[in-house]
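User:
Hi there, any thoughts?
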Amino acid sequence: MYTDYMSEKNLPGINYFDYLRGMQSVVQENGYQLLIDTITPRQIAERQLPSMLTKGYVEGIIYNGLVNIDYLTFFVEKCPNTVVLGRADDLKLQQVETDNYYGGELVAEYLWKLGHRHFAIMSGVKKNVVLAQRQTGFEETLARLSGGDCRIDVLRADYWKMDGGSREIAAFWQKSGTLPTAVFGLNDHLALNVLIKLKEMGVKVPETVSVIGFDNVDKGTVVTPHLSTISIPRVEIGQLAAEKMIALLSGRITQKHEISLLKPTLIKRNSCRALMV
C-alpha cells in the first residue's frame, strides 16, 4: 500500500490504520504480505517511484491519499495492478470509496428533521471532488425536502490550515449580524474548528447553533460537546480494496475500471439538537 503522507500531515485524526486492518485480514488469508510506504510531495513533483516498486518488491498497489492524476497516470504505467482508495475518474482503475453524496443526504435529512431551516456549509477554497459530492448531496436533499423554503450560506475556508473555518464563521457573524442554526462542515477538521470558535465567541453549541462534520475523526469525541458526524466504513473499504487487488492478481477481474461505493453512517452525538418550537 502507498499513501500520500500529506493527507495525514495536514488533516490529523483520520484513522488510516482502519484501512490497513481491513486490508491485512484479506491479504493474509490469501498468502500475500502487506507492505506500507509513503509518497512524498517531492516524489510527486519529480515523478519519482518509491523504491519498493522500482526494486520489484510488489505485485500490486493500493494507493491511498491525495489523487494527483498526472502522477497517478505515471504510477499506473509502471504498475497496472493498482486499486485506488478514492476517486480518480479520469483513469480506468479499480476504485473503492465511501458514498460521499449519500453522506450529504444523511446530514440534510437529520438536520431537517431537527427543525433547522437556516444552514451554513463550511466548504473549501480549492476544488475538491470529495467535498463537492458531500455538498451536492446535502443541497439537493434540502431542495427536495424544503421545496426551496430554506436558506443555505456557503462559506469557504482553507482546510489545509490548522484553523481552517474559524475565521470564516467569525467573519460571517460579524458581517451578517446573524448565525445559521446549523453548520455542516464538509470534513471534521472544518467542523471542529467552527465548533471551537463558536464557543470562544460565547455561542452555545448546540443550544444556539448545531454543528456536524464528516469523517468521524478521533478528536470528535475529545471536544465538548462531542461532534456529530458521518462515519466512513474504513475497515470495509480496506477489505474490499484488498479483495479487488487479489482478484486482479489472480485474473478474476479483467475489467480495469469499476467504482465501488460503500455507504457511510450517521453518528449522532451532542453537537446537534432539535430547535425549540
In short: Confidence is low (pLDDT under 50) at residues 4-12. Residues 8 and 274 are 34 Å apart (CA to CA). Residues 129-146 form the longest helix (18 residues).
